[in-house]
Amino acid sequence: ATRLRLVLGDQLNASHSWFREKHDDTLYVIAELHQEAQYTQHHAQKISAFFAAMSQFADALVQAGHRVLHLTLDDTAQYQDLPDLLTALLQRYNVNHFEYQLADEYRLRNQLDNFAQGLTISATAYETEHFYLTDTELSDYFQQGKRHRLEHFYRKMRLRFNVMMEGEEPLGGQWNFDQQNRQKMKPKDFVSVPDPLLFSHDVTAIWERIQRHNISTIGEMNMALLWPVSRKQSLILLEYFCRFCLVRFGQFQDAMTAKLDTLGESKQWTLYHSRLSFALNTKMISPQCVVDTAIKYYASSQGQISLPQIEGFVRQIIGWREFVRGVYWANMPDYAQLNALNADNSLPDWFWNAKTKMNCLHYAIKQSLEYAYAHHIQRLMVTGNFCLITGIDPEQVDEWYLGIYIDAIEWVEMPNTRGMSQFADGGIVGSKAYAASGNYINKMSDYCSDCAYNVSKTIGDNACPLNALYWRFMVKHQPLFSNNPRNKMVFANWQKKPIDDQQAILKRAEYLLKHLNNI
Ligand code: FAD
Ligand code: SF4
């Protein structure tokens, strides 16, 4: 008799209670699946990184004395999908009990739950034991359709898990230090930006396999994969972040630059960001481990790391990451259909080759194609904002984000994309649409000074396209947005413009919308 335990590609959690004991009758299955490589068009480095991390995890389990079946695309090609493969394995290994961990994606969870329910042998589903909140607890915090707010949730989480608290009060007497953070990066700041810690994991064999099976991908491949693919590498990256990046994490969290690399170094894409999202989302490290380690560094830094830096970082993990997961599960599957602004335009072709004259978009997309990575503000305020104010169909926006980023898994990608950045959920995730003109980009980056367009102009051929597009977007959705007090000034400013100017702006916006492929 055999017990079969399935480990999915984003369930590489070595601390899971499954692995505490060794059982000769337990067979762990880790499988490269065609369905997972193809449910969307992934970045070449993303599939390679997942397969490499799965392979490392399988090796680690074998070394720890577990029985493991690691299947490659070659081994699984003949099976139509995951249930089909599992059915064959249950038979081949004479399995009498099937166990799996709850999948974090709705699509997969449904598939596995249905499969388990249809079995004649017994089956058990386990928690992944990764997040702060267990699966069953999510409904205590999140309800379908309700407009949830991060700040409220974040405070509850800090209190509940006693993270940086002094009794009932937040450390330093303040929950939020955003005012002090989020600065623009100036040339004088360039010298202290740390070089990114990059790994170099040979994925030639994996990449050949991906090509042999005709899996279509986007982005540039790099045979020396620079992402962490084991728990050990994930911990090294975490230590590196704490030692060299945490000190200015909050300060330059929103900064963007194209000029830093003129110094001959390649670090403008990473700045002070942790790049831990892949390690976290594959569960090679846990959010608790990341938060505890960062706080330990903060506490022993003798004041070098300031409170706003650590608070800004902890908020992302204990706050945002857990928050979007809660929103996802409370609202799926309906969430995937939401389109509150009825956006229906198509993504311009240059989202796949970065060939646009708009410098900000050129850099954000070029970097995404090269590294399968962009930091939060590039995703939200550059590519995301562009799609928002040009009314791109959220279906297409979701698909692009789900494919291109190394860390993109639907539970975290979708609420960020469809919700936070596209406002397609009508305000479940965020209280307002993150729409911006060129002014915001100019404030947070040095992109504009080298751009073909002029950020201070709204009309005319060389005017920054984002300016007219922003106004058109706000005016179009005025009935929906004008109730929000945060938009009062915006509409007052619009009203102040002479009618002729208003018309010229809207005309320019319409022209741009018709020529999105050529701007
Ligand atoms: P850091 O800036 O170093 O932040 C530390 C960690 O905080 C991250 O690793 C991540 O785990 C967490 N975090 C920060 N912001 C968020 C957030 N808004 N939601 C959830 N976790 C957060 N993140 C993903 O992991 N997968 C995605 O597919 C994804 N898609 C996104 C799409 C859009 C449109 C936007 C605006 C954001 C998206 N994010 C996504 C959130 C965020 O941009 C990335 O987590 C972050 O850029 C990853 O880089 P990092 O590890 O260097 O993050
Ligand atoms: Fe982007 Fe406009 Fe600035 Fe060009 S001028 S970089 S398009 S914000």
UniProtKB/TrEMBL annotation:
InterPro entries: Crypto/Photolyase_FAD-like_sf (IPR036134), PhrB-like (IPR007357), Rossmann-like_a/b/a_fold (IPR014729), UV-DNA_repair_photolyase (IPR052551). It comes from the Bacteria. SUPFAM superfamilies: Cryptochrome/photolyase FAD-binding domain (SSF48173). Transmembrane segments: none annotated. This is Cryptochrome/photolyase family protein. It comes from Shewanella subflava.
